[in-house]
Amino acid sequence: MNQAKRTYLNLMIFKIIAECKGRISVQQIHQQIEPNMGMSVRSLQRYMKGLAEWGLIQADGKTPQGFKLSEHAKSIFKELAGSAAH
């Protein structure tokens, strides 16, 4: 995956999670991004695990695994939104 595609994927994942009230599963995310990305559910699971390891999303440990934005990610986006407003 090239850098532009990875950046787009990150933005799509963050947008989808941010728009969801509560938790969202990999399958739900996959249904929304697959037409644009051509990524398997398993590949997305591995990718989401990496985002969680970076502290950008939080996994809830339930079955199926659910995710939400981490406080760290929320603060980054808030800071970016504030910078863009100036």
From TrEMBL:
Gene3D superfamilies: Winged helix-like DNA-binding domain superfamily/Winged helix DNA-binding domain. InterPro entries: WH-like_DNA-bd_sf (IPR036388), WH_DNA-bd_sf (IPR036390). SUPFAM superfamilies: Winged helix' DNA-binding domain. This is Transcriptional regulator. It comes from Acinetobacter pragensis.
